[in-house]
């Protein structure tokens, strides 16, 4: 006999760091935005204790009461373990992404945000955005030990956000400006970049502390420019921050080539590294379809939508 089972579908957007890279880890201000490329999690309840996960990264099969770890799905499994004892039964989980995990669009933060929300619905829990953010951040810290949560805040709340780690503050900012994104073709793990910067810092601690303060001051001015929707000023401040990233030692020849190739266009108001650096992406303020760069262009736009829930029916 057929019976209807609710399928819980939750999506969360990817994200881009606009300003505040590195300095945010030392309590300084950051700015990030959600983008119109999303991660979807579909949770189908089961009547037994089995957990099945299907994603581009891995296929997984385990028991809810004794979940096996799989490094390919560590954020997902950690999030499930966090609430396993409160879940009514096992479930099947389908994870689909509109962007590649190899490109720095905050895929780990997006899937964590979407899954934490889906699991809260499965256990019939009302989870406001603030609590969703805090629970998802606990997952990220549990998996990787540290992390500012900036990309997670953008995924949860959507739009442009200003963010401070401690005291924790998330502020919605005005406007959805036009942006471009170019991928260098490779990326260095954030942990490895941070380790390299830490080594440099040991040589000149006071100098690096001053760099982080300059990054903070630049970000505060950028936040003000966004609130006034003064995009030319924001572009200039992005260029300033790029210089500070270079001074920090996280720029390289390929990233510089992308940055300066973009700045040759009158339609581009500013360009800088997005993320920790030594590869990954360059973000530009503005778009120019006539640009021909030998690098992958990733079509993205700032999205005002954060985590969204859709509950559909499933017949079994």
Fraction in helix = 25-40%
Contiguous uncertain segments of 5+ residues: none
* Rg measurement, Å: 20 Å
The termini sit apart by 9 Å
Order of helical and strand elements: EEEEHEHHHEEEHHHHEEEE
- Based on DSSP secondary structure assignment, what is the total number of beta strands? 12
Overall 3D shape: globular
Overall description:
The chain has 316 residues and is of the alpha+beta class. Helices cover 37% and strands 27% of the residues. It contains eight helices and twelve strands. Strands 1, 2, 3, 4, 5, 6, 7 and 12 form an eight-stranded mixed β-sheet that branches. It has a four-stranded antiparallel β-sheet with strand order 9-10-8-11. β3 (50-54) and β4 form a beta hairpin. α1 (74-83) packs parallel to α2, α2 (107-122) packs across α3 and α6 (205-227) runs antiparallel to α7. The longest helix has 23 residues, at 205-227. The N and C termini lie close together (9 Å). The mean pLDDT is 92.
Layout of strands and helices, then pairs:
Elements: E1 4-19, E2 30-45, E3 50-54, E4 59-63, H1 74-83, E5 91-97, H2 107-122, H3 129-144, H4 150-157, E6 160-164, E7 169-173, E8 179-183, H5 190-203, H6 205-227, H7 231-248, H8 253-263, E9 270-274, E10 281-285, E11 296-298, E12 308-315
Parallel strand pairs: 3-5
Antiparallel strand pairs: 1-2, 1-12, 2-5, 2-6, 3-4, 6-7, 8-10, 8-11, 9-10
Helix pairs in contact: 1-2, 1-3, 2-3, 2-4, 3-4, 5-6, 6-7
């Amino acid at each position: 006999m057929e019976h209807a089972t609710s399928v819980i579908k939750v999506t969360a957007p990817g994200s881009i760091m606009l300003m505040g890279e590195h300095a945010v880890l030392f309590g300084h201000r950051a700015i990030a935005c959600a983008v119109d490329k999303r991660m979807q999690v579909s949770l189908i309840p089961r009547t037994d204790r089995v957990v099945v996960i299907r994603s581009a990264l891995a296929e997984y099969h385990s028991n809810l009461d004794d979940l096996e770890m799989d490094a390919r799905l560590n954020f997902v499994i950690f999030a499930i373990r966090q609430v396993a004892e409160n879940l009514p039964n096992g479930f099947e989980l389908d994870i689909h992404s509109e962007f590649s995990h190899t490109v720095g669009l905050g895929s780990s933060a997006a899937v964590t945000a979407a899954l934490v929300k889906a699991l809260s619905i499965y256990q019939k829990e009302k989870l406001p955005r603030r609590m969703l953010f805090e629970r998802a951040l606990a997952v990220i810290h549990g998996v990787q030990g540290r992390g500012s949560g900036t990309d997670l805040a953008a995924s949860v709340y959507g739009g442009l956000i200003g963010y401070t780690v401690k005291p924790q503050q998330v502020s919605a900012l005005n406007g959805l400006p036009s942006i471009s994104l170019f991928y260098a073709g490779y990326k260095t793990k954030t942990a490895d970049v941070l380790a390299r910067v830490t080594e440099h810092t040991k040589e000149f601690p006071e100098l690096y502390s001053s760099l982080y303060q300059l990054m903070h001051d630049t970000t505060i001015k950028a936040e003000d420019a966004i609130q006034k929707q003064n995009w030319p000023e924001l572009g200039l401040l992005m260029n300033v921050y790029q210089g500070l990233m270079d001074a920090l030692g996280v720029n390289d020849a390929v990233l510089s080539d992308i940055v300066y190739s973009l700045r040759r266009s009158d339609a581009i108001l500013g360009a800088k590294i997005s993320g920790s650096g030594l590869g990954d992406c360059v973000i530009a303020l503005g778009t120019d379809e006539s640009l021909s760069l030998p690098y992958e262009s990733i079509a993205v736009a700032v999205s005002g939508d954060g985590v969204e829930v859709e509950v559909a029916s499933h017949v079994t």
